[in-house]
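Reminder to self: tokens first, then the designed residues, so the page reads top to bottom the way the pipeline ran.
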């Protein structure tokens, strides 16, 4: 479960609400336009993983904040169910921590190779057609919500391990779902809801200090 930004997929059927003449290029440009004007984003998420003989569903809240020039954005994935855990980055350091554990893992945010990391580059830096090779309408994939559109493409930096990425977009050009199909047959899906844009988010939310007695490990491994 590792990767670098690539976020986008749209419709199974191009419905009228998107416009019968709207093509992949105009849809991708509209998504870029939407996210490149945002400074912060908050959303509820559900993460569904299938692979290696296991199925796992987790949920929680995601916060994103725009990063500086040539710098990853800030993000905080706060998992609540079925187990509390935290994945947070201030744009410099990225941390993974499970409350109650006596270890916290840290890595350089700029070298982060994680399935969640692409979203850190979303706000202000979205370029779907550059990030996803062969971007096209996924007419064979049913959208999760009627009226949405699904796109598919191959992330340029992950072609050796990810077969494709599907991105479901709403009529407002928001990303509602991301599906990553990896070459080993595993699938990771992220569903987003209750999205709140450009609301104030405290800088403290993106900082992490290991609790006293916690060992810090330098690592680039995902949980």
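Designed residues (223 positions):
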């Amino acid at each position: 479960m590792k990767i670098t930004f690539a976020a986008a997929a749209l419709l199974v059927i191009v419905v009228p609400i998107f416009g019968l003449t709207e093509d992949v290029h105009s849809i991708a440009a509209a998504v870029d336009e939407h996210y490149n004007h945002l400074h912060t984003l908050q959303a509820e998420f559900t993460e569904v993983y299938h692979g290696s003989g296991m199925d796992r569903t987790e949920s929680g809240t995601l916060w994103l904040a725009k990063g500086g020039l040539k710098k990853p954005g800030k993000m905080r994935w706060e998992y609540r169910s079925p187990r509390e855990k935290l994945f947070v980055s201030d744009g410099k350091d990225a941390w993974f921590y499970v409350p109650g554990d006596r270890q916290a893992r840290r890595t350089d945010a700029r070298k982060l190779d994680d399935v969640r990391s692409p979203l850190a580059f979303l706000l202000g830096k979205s370029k779907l057609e550059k990030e996803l090779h062969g971007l096209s309408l996924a007419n064979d994939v049913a959208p999760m919500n009627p009226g949405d559109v699904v796109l598919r493409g191959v992330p340029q930096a992950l072609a050796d391990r990810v077969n494709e990425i599907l991105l479901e977009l709403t009529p407002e050009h928001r990303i509602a779902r991301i599906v990553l199909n990896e070459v080993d047959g595993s699938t990771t899906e992220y569903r987003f809801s209750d999205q709140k844009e450009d609301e104030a988010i405290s800088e403290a939310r993106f900082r992490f200090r290991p609790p006293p007695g916690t060992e810090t490990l330098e690592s680039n491994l995902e949980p």
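Residues 42 and 63 are 5 Å apart (CA to CA).
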